[in-house]
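Reading a protein record of the kind used here takes only a little practice. To see the layout at work, look at the sequence and tokens printed below.
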Amino acid sequence: MKLSKEAIQEFQLIYSNKFGENIEYEEAEEMGTNLIHLFQILMKIDLNLK
């Protein structure tokens, strides 16, 4: 899944507000993509348990 430029920039802002440090665009893109993949895995697990 490819995140939009706006989504990545929003992730940078959220990260900065939460942790008080700025991250580069590429790092935010990787972290955001990893977060999306984590939630996809969790959703699959949840659906299999129901």
User: Anything to note?
Assistant: The chain has a mean pLDDT of 94. The CA atoms of residues 10 and 26 lie 13 Å apart. Helices lie at 5-19, 25-49.
